[in-house]
Write a structure and sequence with these properties.
three-stranded antiparallel beta sheet
């Protein structure tokens, strides 16, 4: 019996992406991690503008490092016909194309999904947009925080006094993950039919799907869940509570049996299990302030480790309220070996393994973060261009 690991599932798949910022780059990075060859098309004058967001990753932008490992950078001016022809030639030999340019920009270049799939029936082509290709918002600028607001996420996130955006680019990530899963589904269909086809993903619709609970609560229940900070809107107690050592511990009681265990074993107030003001989740949620007060009183005399131990002994779901630094040092991630080093123009950088684990398969590629235009010459040589032709393109500013 062979002990060789199974190949990565996208080994042999070539992806060309005209991408920037987060949504398309994060989607294609998932494909690269699973074995696809991803050719990233960037402008010669600075490339993907996410390269300039910050310098936190040893001089590189943290967004760019996160979303672009394992790709080949082709720095080319698509407004020059020679550059556009080279990209079209790459697409002709690709399995997947993805773009997230401003609405209408790809179509003006003939790089929209419908046009490309008509010319290349086996191609899977993805258009990511903010609001979709038509409708009154089609041409509206669509940055992550703006879409978070339009999708209602900000209205249900924060405290009763202050709505806040999510601390991560939720709209971008939502669109990226639907683009990623859409590509996988389309490749599976192509394997049985021989046909690829266009895919459309909008940030608003992707995040709208993620708004499922508050959206259905509001549409069918008459009003949206209230903003409750760290607390859950319709379950109590489900909140973070301060501990004696300055930490915070979050706990979640999912049913009335768990409330009884919490009252008896952690709060040391067994009478609360049958008290009409606390005995049911409806009552506890209606008396949220009192419920939180009795829990806070009990946990406030314990250290965070003591509180976690007491809650776990009682079978109550709990967690520490960790900082970013805590996550980077999380013992569970360390125990499961989830960290690797990736190469970059700034040297080795720490990165987390992608969450799709395939036991018995090859490790995810997690290739280097590319410098701008690092692979331009090799890609053009692959298209049959000579050194003289490539030098002429560079001299004219078509490539970098």
């Amino acid at each position: 019996m062979s002990t060789q690991p199974l190949p990565l599932p996208l080994d042999g798949i070539t992806v060309v992406a005209v991408e920037q910022a987060v949504s398309a780059p994060f989607a294609t990075r998932q494909l690269a991690d699973l074995g696809a060859r991803v050719i990233k098309i960037e402008r010669p004058d600075g490339g993907d503008f996410a390269r300039g967001y910050d310098t936190a990753a040893r001089g590189l932008a943290s967004h760019f490092v996160w979303c672009n490992r394992g790709k080949e950078s082709f720095a080319v001016d698509l407004k020059d016909s020679r550059g556009l022809d080279a990209v079209r030639e790459l697409i002709a030999g690709a399995d997947v194309f993805m773009q997230n340019l401003a609405n209408g920009a790809a179509a003006r270049l003939g790089l929209d999904a419908a046009t490309l799939c008509a010319a290349h029936p086996r191609l899977v082509a993805v258009d990511i947009s903010g609001y979709g290709a038509d409708g009154p918002y089609a041409d509206k600028r669509a940055y992550d925080m703006l879409v978070q607001c339009e999708a209602g996420l900000v209205s249900v996130t924060g405290t009763p006094e202050q709505p806040v955006k999510a601390g991560i680019p939720a709209a971008d990530i939502a669109a990226a993950m639907y683009a990623f899963s859409g590509v996988l589904a389309a490749l599976l269909r192509r394997a049985t039919t021989g046909l690829g086809g266009p895919i459309e993903v909008s940030m608003l619709e992707a995040l709208g799907e993620w708004m499922g609970h508050p959206l259905h609560h509001g549409m069918h229940g008459g009003e949206a869940p209230a903003r409750t900070g760290v607390a859950h809107a319709v379950i109590s107690p489900y909140n973070a509570y301060p501990t004696a050592d300055g930490g915070q511990v979050l706990l979640s009681v999912q049913n009335d049996r768990e409330w009884r265990r919490l009252a008896e074993q952690v709060l040391r107030r067994p009478e609360l299990a049958d008290d009409p003001a606390f005995a049911t989740n409806t009552a506890r949620t209606g008396n949220r302030v009192k419920t939180d007060a009795v829990v806070a009183e009990a946990l406030g005399v314990m250290s965070a480790p003591e509180a976690i131990a007491a809650l776990e002994a009682a079978g109550i779901a709990c967690a520490r309220l960790n900082t970013v630094a805590d996550v980077a040092a999380h013992p569970q991630l360390a125990a499961r070996g989830r960290w690797r080093e990736i190469d970059s123009p700034a040297g080795p950088l720490r990165a987390m393994l992608p969450p799709i684990t395939m036991p018995g398969g090859a490790d995810p590629l997690m290739g280097p973060v590319p410098a701008l235009g690092e692979h331009t010459d090799a890609l053009l040589h692959g298209l049959g261009m000579t050194d003289v032709q490539i030098s002429a393109l560079r001299r004219d500013g078509v490539i970098a």
